[in-house]
Design goal:
Helix content is about 45%, strand content about 15%. The protein is an alpha/beta fold. A six-stranded mixed beta sheet has the order 1-6-5-4-2-3. Helix 1 packs parallel to helix 7, helix 3 packs parallel to helix 4 and helix 5 packs parallel to helix 7. The termini are far apart. Bound molecules: zinc ion (ZN). The site of zinc ion has 6 residues, from helix 4.
Length: about 180
């Protein structure tokens, strides 16, 4: 049983087909990053011609920095590569192995990303791993207002499997003490 794809625009099969391909690739590669000490999330930014601009995993633990989520690392790499803090003119798409957390939504918005595609929704990330994804009221609508397309729940079964494996490995689920 796969989850229903959700979006903030009428479903576009072409976008979904491409997103499935890229996200499955991220999910296939993610265990290698985890093996090297990364957190269980991977993001990639592509341009309209299918060129990969940046791809980075979560490095909170191995770089000792709470905001080094996969999305933030990928945005930073893309901005450094293209030498701009405003990516909007490049019309870039971000693909990510799980729904962005509250911090990353801010990062994506301020970087000028135009389209976001994610796999595992936050409720499942939280259920499987215990990570806290924050509060994100109506973010699909808020992104739409700002001209940012969002598609979610893409290839969730493969995405959940990577997270389950991460937990089984006994890897760190970092969060601030409360
Ligand atoms: Zn995040």
């Amino acid at each position: 049983m796969t989850d229903m794809i959700v979006a903030n625009e009428p479903l576009d099969e072409k976008k979904i087909t491409l997103a499935r391909k890229i996200i499955l690739e991220l999910q296939r590669e993610l265990p290698q990053y985890i093996e090297r000490g990364s957190g269980p999330f991977l993001a990639a930014i592509y341009d309209d011609n299918g060129n990969l601009i940046a791809k980075e995993a979560n490095s909170v633990v191995n770089s000792c920095c709470s905001h080094n989520h996969a999305e933030m690392n990928t945005l930073r790499a893309a901005e450094e590569k293209l030498k701009t803090y405003d990516l909007s003119a490049h019309h870039l798409k971000m693909y990510v192995s799980a729904e962005p957390c509250m911090m990353c939504l801010g990062g994506i918005m301020w970087a000028g990303i135009k389209e976001v595609y994610f796999s595992v929704p936050s409720k499942d990330v939280e259920k499987i791993t215990g990570f806290d994804e924050g509060f994100k009221p109506q973010w699909f609508d808020e992104f739409k207002k700002r001209g940012i397309t969002v598609y979610g729940n893409i290839e969730t079964e493969a995405g959940k499997k990577v997270l389950q494996d991460y937990v089984k490995l006994g890897r760190k689920v970092y969060k601030p003490e409360r």
